[in-house]
Amino acid sequence: MEKTSQSGCSHANEPQLSPSFLGEGWSAGAARAWRIPLKFSLGVLSLAILLGGCGADAPKPAPQAETKPVEPAIPEEIQAAAKALLGTESQVLAFGDLAKNGKQQFLAANVVPKTPTNNLPGTIVTRAVVAENDDGKWTEILRCDEHLKNPKGYLGLTPLAPVTGWRLQFEQNAEKGLQLYFTPLQGTTDSHVLPIGVRWNSATKRYQSLDRTYEHFLLESPALNDVRSRLR
């Protein structure tokens, strides 16, 4: 009967050896040493979660509403003059030193209100005037009704056929003053024609129409025979 060798299992019943850092001496001191950083880490984590939650729930400031500049009130004398020239339905669209000539002027019009049958873009008018204050008296110096006219006659490029409605566009230039653009319309449809430019001519001291380059002034005509291309 063979004898069982003891050398191959000499360690089977012996206590297993453990690394020295797992001994009893480490477990008491090292556990206390690790307990403090662990508490600190948990505290930092809790604070981060709390701050993150507050940041997510914090109300965002409401965007401030855009404030539109307050338009200056239209003086009563200008309102009265506009009504005298165009009737009670007149609207004053602009006033001040419009021509940059040192005199007070205003632009007024009979504006067609927006309706389902009038859905054309822009300001649609049937009549419009520019008046100037001359020594306390308001005098009409430009008229738009069926044609474009000034005190000298019909403006160049005004249509020969009567116009019942116009699209009116205008803008103020710091140097040239009020610039007007009249587009004749046919009924309630857009005629797709080029607008007629009108501006104050400092050389002739009146409003005149411009050629198709919007650079050169055109002469007026006392009649509608030839008002389309006369340069000043």
How would you describe this protein?
The protein folds into two domains: 25-53; 76-209, no CATH class. Helix content is 19%, strand content 28%. The protein has two helices and ten strands; from the N terminus they run H-H-E-E-E-E-E-E-E-E-E-E. The chain has helices at residues 24-57, 76-86; strands spanning 91-96, 105-111, 123-134, 137-144, 148-150, 153-154, 165-173, 177-185, 196-201, 206-209.
Question: How many helical stretches?
Answer: 2
Strand portion: 25-35%
Structural class: alpha+beta
In angstroms, what is the radius of gyration?
Answer: 44 Å
Brief rundown of the structure:
With 232 residues, this protein is of the alpha+beta class. It has helices at 24-57, 76-86, and strands at residues 91-96, 105-111, 123-134, 137-144, 148-150, 153-154, 165-173, 177-185, 196-201, 206-209.
Task: Identify the notable features of this structure and list them briefly.
2 domains, alpha+beta, disordered N terminus, 2 helices, 10-stranded antiparallel sheet, 232 residues
Reconstruct the topology from this structure.
Elements: H1 24-57, H2 76-86, E1 91-96, E2 105-111, E3 123-134, E4 137-144, E5 148-150, E6 153-154, E7 165-173, E8 177-185, E9 196-201, E10 206-209
Antiparallel strand pairs: 1-2, 2-3, 3-4, 3-7, 4-5, 5-6, 7-8, 8-9, 9-10
